[in-house]
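Q: Hi! First time asking for a complex rather than a single chain. Here are the components, and I think there are two in total. Is that enough to go on?
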Amino acid sequence: MSRQNTHSLAAHRHQIRFCTQCGGAIRRQPPPGDGRDRAVCSVCGAIQYENPKLVVGCIPTWEDKVLLCRRAIEPRYGYWTLPAGFMENGESTADGAARETAEEAGARVHDLRPFALIDVPYVHQTHLYFTARLTDLDYTPGEESLEARLFAEADIPWDDLSFRTVILTLKHFFADRARGSFGFHHDTLAYPPRP
Amino acid sequence: MSRQNTHSLAAHRHQIRFCTQCGGAIRRQPPPGDGRDRAVCSVCGAIQYENPKLVVGCIPTWEDKVLLCRRAIEPRYGYWTLPAGFMENGESTADGAARETAEEAGARVHDLRPFALIDVPYVHQTHLYFTARLTDLDYTPGEESLEARLFAEADIPWDDLSFRTVILTLKHFFADRARGSFGFHHDTLAYPPRP
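A: Yes, that's all I need. Here is the structure of the assembled complex.
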């Protein structure tokens, strides 16, 4: 996951208490003509909208192997993951996925294709994974990773994967590969997550 | 587009000036260990992350026709559009697309399938359109629409469509339909938009 994640998955869930425009106190109420409770400034009336975030990542491959990273950060310190993180303003989903792959695995990828879209509504996130090819083998773990390593399907550490979205994406990937045809997958994870 | 849009495409581009946690003044600077300028509170140090937003919508169909809405709001007042708007916290992309279709066209849809993902990095948005079937013909324009109407391909008002993402999505839709097979499409719109 990205820097942004390092410091604060928590920050993404901060309750808004003060107005970003004037510093005034926030009330939770539906603005005029809006049926939904919003963070509305009691002083200037500005509305602070809160919307889901996109997490973008890659399934980086080299021949028959997939590159995974072992997390050096919480949550899920020490577990294996696909490189992924919060999309940043000003970039495309594919650019964000390639950037995260560079940051977390020190790896360059090309030929990115959208592969799995997974809604995680209980944390206000949508995850989007791209299949991608490693451009070379000069990968190296970034600051947020303990290790980066290529795994054949038979060696994937299924019991030590970090997140449900990673498990699901890898299952789709190997199933499609066995079938000889890569589709586009869409899932919604229901609350609660497995323990 | 959604209520949220009605009131403030502008609100989505507000510069953050005060901290949502303590009301302190914001500085733009890279937080420790982060190479990117962020809105950081000069008083409590909280970081206010800003990320792209997902716009979700439908291509609602009935037999060979597509349901469009004519916008009763700016931007692009009076132009025809597919029902779409900002995804809300707590919902999935498909739920959001169905909600927007209900709000803008008063229409119920089923059998939603992801169809077109369009990155619009210069406004910090990613748009996701689903193909969808109208459940019945009891549609009626919502408060943000002047009209809702079914169009055969030959009657699509190409010169009076609202947004580039709508034009592109409809082009993909009719091309795939002519081919007899619906794929999943991914595009990135480069700045600047056409006039």
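A: The domain at 3-48 of chain B is CATH 2.20.70.10 (Ubiquitin Ligase Nedd4; Chain: W;). Let me know if you'd like any chain examined more closely.
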